[in-house]
Amino acid sequence: MALRIGFRTSPQNVDWPTLESAWAEAGRHDVFDSGWLNDHLTDPRRDRGGPGLEAVATLAALARLVPGKRIGHTVLAATFRHPSLLAKQAVTIDHISDGRFILGLGAGWHVGEHESFGIELPAIGERMSRLEGQVQVLKALFSDAARGAPGVTLDAPPYRLDGAVMEPAPLQAGGPPIWLGAQKPRGMRLTARLADGW
Known about the structure:
- This protein is α/β, with parallel strands linked by helices.
- It has one domain (6-194): Luciferase-like domain (TIM Barrel), CATH 3.20.20.30.
- The chain contains 6 helices and 8 strands; from the N terminus they run E-H-E-H-E-E-H-E-H-H-E-E-E-H.
- Strand 2 (34-37), helix 2 (55-62) and strand 3 form a beta-alpha-beta unit.
């Protein structure tokens, strides 16, 4: 097994030309097999952040700068996006990247970031339950059942699909791999049961 090396950047405290230049430079080097971007609305390490770009749109724009390399997030906060929207975003990036996208997903964690933007951050038990529901929704929408009528119907509390149709199909069979960011026993069990990687 060959050693694989990825690079990671943050879309926080950096302007677009600098980030674009860094990814273009990384794309020219064979040493890297993947490129990763984290997901924050503001830099959680600072009281006041500098410029910050949204992670999903930014990765879509960066995808073509690193041809042949896998791309993904370390990790998207599940609390920031409804899983149906995230499924559509993931399939879109899968197409833009020619099937190189890995969907990194976590339960969300930074209290101050959530509070300052008015986003609910439930207790960890509820976040883990929602994360499980999100993975179920994502996998259902990535499946062949979501192509054309009658679509997908699924009850994955607190999420529900009722005849959901999602096209186009992902380029990767079964959809982009879902990797979960988890540390505690419940998250590790969820990763082992539902995810494609950690």
